TrEMBL record:
Its main location: membrane. It comes from the Bacteria. The chain crosses the membrane at residues 20-47, 72-100, 121-140, 146-164, 222-244, 264-287. This is Phosphate transport system permease protein PstA. It comes from Halolactibacillus miurensis. Residues 76-283 form the ABC transmembrane type-1 domain. Keywords: Cell membrane, Membrane, Transmembrane, Transmembrane helix, Transport.
């Protein structure tokens, strides 16, 4: 009798779990469908508004107070100059820090605190990094709103992401590879350079490129830093004033309340920025597939 009652309880419990699973699956599917639908509507609106405005004059022209003659070449060059600072600073410091933390630093309480803080820095709002960049680079070092100050500020923003992703890539390398290398007489640095880094390269590059994609699309730190969207000459060096595509989108969106054409210019600029992001993300996928090895 007791066995029969226990069996009935188990069956009822299983039915409740199955019903709960189906209900939650439906909720998650509905949430996903809603998000994809909103994204599709937004993407359709941007494409329909922006495509007619994309032409050679728009891509190569200067900024103008006349919406019909406005171009984004200055913002494109500013974005490229910004990345010219962010890429080497972020990759060199990020990968170097990950190698030290993962392969050289001794494990202990101090190391645990450092690792926790690095992970927590990934979740700090981007505007906080803008305040830090304004305080250190713009004011303390007296750089002002130039390419170098903006690049260093954005490097601080994405550096924790590169460090964490690089450490995960290094951890994923099988330990027997490094043990075999050391067993054959290689030094620790030779093992890292010739065995561990090549094996971790796909993960490191993928994480770095995705972090750089975030840097291209950020606006808040540059707003705090005082990056303008004015009629500036094209930037030609690290100490020139500049603007970037997200800043141009931001200001044209604000101006759209006064002049309707700016809304269409902002949509066209969003398309250009999305193309750059797709290229970066596609590059990450190609690199991962090209250098992926199975051990």
């Amino acid at each position: 009798m007791a066995t029969h009652m226990t069996s009935e309880r188990i069956q009822k419990r299983m039915k409740r779990r199955v019903a709960l699973n189906k209900g939650l699956s439906g909720v998650f599917l509905l949430a996903t469908t809603f998000g994809v639908f909103v994204l599709g509507v937004l993407f359709y609106q941007i494409i329909t508004e922006g495509i007619p405005y994309i032409n050679l004059d728009f891509l190569t022209g200067k900024l103008s107070t006349n919406a019909e003659r406005a171009g984004i070449m200055g913002a494109i060059l500013g974005t490229l100059w910004l990345m010219a600072v962010v890429i080497p600073v972020t990759i060199i410091l990020g990968v170097g820090t990950a190698i030290y933390n993962e392969l050289y630093a001794k494990q202990g309480k101090l190391q645990t605190i450092i690792q926790t803080n690095i992970a927590n820095l990934s979740g700090v709002p981007s505007i906080v990094y803008g305040i830090l960049g304004m305080t250190i680079f713009a004011n303390l070092l007296n750089l002002g709103s130039v390419v170098l100050a903006g690049g260093l500020t954005m490097s601080l923003l994405v550096l924790p992401i590169v460090i964490v992703s690089s450490q995960e890539a290094l951890r994923a390398v099988p330990s027997y590879l490094s043990e075999a290398s050391i067993g054959l007489g290689a030094t620790k640095w030779q093992t890292i350079k010739n065995i561990i880094l090549p094996a971790a390269l796909p993960g490191i590059l993928t994480g770095s490129i995705l972090a750089l994609s975030r840097a291209i699309g950020e606006t808040a730190p540059l707003v705090v830093l005082g990056i303008p969207a004015l009629l500036l000459p094209f930037p030609g060096g690290l100490f020139d004033r500049f603007t970037v595509l997200p800043m141009q989108i931001y200001y044209w969106t604000l101006d759209a309340s006064l002049v309707e054409e700016y809304q269409f210019l902002a949509s066209a600029t969003i398309i250009v920025l999305l193309v750059m992001l797709f290229i970066l993300n596609g590059t990450a996928i190609v690199i991962r597939n090209k250098f992926q090895r199975r051990y």
